[in-house]
Write a structure and sequence with these properties.
It is a single chain. The chain is of the alpha+beta class. It folds into two domains: 274 residues, FAD/NAD(P)-binding domain (3-Layer(bba) Sandwich), CATH 3.50.50.60; 149 residues, no CATH class. Helix content is 33%, strand content 25%. It has 15 helices and 19 strands. Strands 1, 2, 3, 7, 8, 9, 10 and 19 form an eight-stranded mixed beta sheet that branches. A six-stranded antiparallel barrel has the order 12-15-14-13-16-17. A three-stranded antiparallel beta sheet has the order 4-6-5. A hairpin with a 5-residue loop joins strand 13 and strand 14. It is elongated. The protein binds flavin-adenine dinucleotide. The site of flavin-adenine dinucleotide has 38 residues, from helix 1, helix 2, strand 8 and helix 15.
């Protein structure tokens, strides 16, 4: 009968299974196959690397060129966990890896590193071709449309060797039949991604069944996400603002916000006004702190500097300059160059009394308070925080409760801003997990 899962009788045994064909899983598979292991890679989707391809749509930011001590600092609370992993395989290795696949990279003006063509597709094509036809080692065998729905460690009485049993739901496209298939592997790398953009495969559905298997998982949360604003009335932007400015960028601004430590963080850059609030790279840079503030206090505040290159004194002088019969808008445009969305934001958020008070207005131009009330839904986020807790893993990313099971990529509990830090840590943890599997399997025939 269609759509009713039925159990296939014959279990399959393999040496190494990698589950999840994103950058973390593909890297783990590449390292292990190049070391001579027979690697079987499973993915729930009809093809692998879908989020990686999406990441390339706006320019694939592979990594960042800043000095290592700054680079690792971007991982915030998880810096100490990721530092040893990234010092073995980090930004430089990532660039060499791309070059080795025939894709040259360049450093953009912001220090971010991109492939010459900016796109992900040529890199993914070259990567998959290398996995299928390696220069040395064994080709990787791909099993798409295999959704992992359960994992169990078997040892002693249940099996000859200690094995990990994997249960997959396999969808046959032509018959629409769903079959349940068992595989077992000596070592398994789980690289199932976070919990955003579920239509591309990473749906976070693994959280409850990994927890049921005894693996500690912290709740997944949106990271590098948009935020809802309160607006002046507490109900978001006005319909006028939305109709004129949703989708418009705010360029050359600076933002200050409170980090959980109480320190004031400040960043310059740009972001975008959306119908619900704010999104874009500058907002993403602060998203972890802003999300934590909302969790703790119900809202978060950021201060927007509309003229970061001007001192407050200079702004006060310019605003206070007699304006005669000119409207406030043409005065600010003429004297300070403030117009468009910057002017609209002042009108949107300040009371008429403040707009008419030169000193107050100047202060607001240098620190416009914007109240954020909520994150956008996790499924829209660029990445997710939370995931498999570090305390449940050994230094080789092997789970303590289920020996033979390793975890890599975004499903680990870390977060970082955009800037190439996400892909670098995903691939670095895939690399690390693969080397740990290899070390464990030494002595076994690859
Ligand atoms: C719009 C957008 C733009 C981005 N741009 C960048 C960028 O420029 N630079 C950057 O560094 N990062 C970027 N990222 C983030 C980056 O793409 C992710 O952090 C990265 O892809 C995560 O890699 P991963 O291998 O851990 O997981 P994923 O890439 O999410 O892959 C996980 C894989 O596991 C599979 N899977 C999940 N559950 C199961 C299951 N139960 N059974 C079998 N298979 C399963 C999925 O189908 C998927 O193929 C972007 C993300 C988005 C959404």
């Amino acid at each position: 009968m269609n759509n009713i899962p039925h159990e296939s009788s014959k279990p399959h045994h393999v040496a190494v299974a990698v589950v999840g064909g994103g950058p973390a899983g593909l890297m783990a598979a590449q390292v292990l196959s190049s070391l001579g292991h027979s690697v079987h890679l499973f993915d729930a989707m009809p093809s692998v690397g879908r989020k990686f391809l999406l990441a390339g749509r706006g320019g694939l930011n592979l990594t960042h060129s800043e000095a290592f001590e700054h680079f690792v600092h971007r991982y915030g609370e998880q810096e100490s966990q990721l530092k040893p992993i990234l010092s073995d395989w980090g930004a430089d290795q990532l660039r060499s890896w791309a070059q080795e696949l025939g894709v040259d990279t360049f450093v953009g003006t912001s220090g971010r590193v991109f492939p010459m063509e900016m796109k992900a597709a040529p890199l993914l094509r070259a990567w998959l071709s290398r996995l299928r036809h390696p220069l040395s080692g064994k080709p990787v065998e791909f099993h798409t449309r295999h959704r992992l729905i359960g994992i169990k460690a078997c040892s002693g009485a249940e099996s000859d060797h200690s094995q990990v049993q994997l249960t997959f739901e396999v969808r046959d496209l032509s018959s629409k039949q769903v079959e349940v298939r068992q595989w077992s592997a000596k070592s398994v790398v789980l690289a199932l991604g976070g919990g955003s953009w579920s239509r591309l495969g990473s749906d976070g559905a693994w959280v409850p069944w990994l927890q049921a298997a005894g693996i500690s998982v912290n709740p997944l949360l949106p990271s590098n996400c948009g935020f809802h604003v309160a607006g002046r009335e507490g109900i978001g932007w006005t319909p006028f603002f939305i109709s004129r400015f949703a989708g418009k960028p705010l360029k050359s601004v600076a933002m200050a916000w409170s980090a959980p430590s109480g320190q004031i963080a400040r960043r310059q850059g740009e972001f975008v006004a959306s119908s619900y609030g704010l999104e874009g790279s500058l907002i993403y840079a602060a998203s972890a702190d802003l999300r934590k503030a909302i969790q703790a206090h119900g809202s978060a505040e950021l201060k927007l500097d509309l003229l970061p290159d001007w001192t407050l004194d200079r702004v006060v002088q310019a605003v206070s300059h007699p304006r005669g019969s000119r409207s406030l808008s043409s005065h600010l445009k003429g004297r300070l160059g403030i117009d468009g969305i910057k002017m609209a934001l002042l009108n949107e958020l300040l009371s008429p009394a403040v707009l008419q008070n030169s000193a107050e207005l100047a202060k607001a131009i240098k620190g416009l308070s914007i109240k954020l009330t909520a994150t956008r839904p996790m499924d829209e986020a660029i990445s997710t925080a939370g995931g498999v807790a570090w305390g449940g893993l050994d230094a080789g990313l092997q789970t303590k409760v289920m020996p033979g099971v390793y975890v890599a990529g975004e499903m680990l509990d870390w977060e970082a801003p955009t800037g190439g830090y996400l892909l670098t840590a995903c691939m670095a943890t895939g690399y690390k997990a693969a080397l740990s599997v290899h070390a464990e399997m030494k002595g076994d025939e690859p």
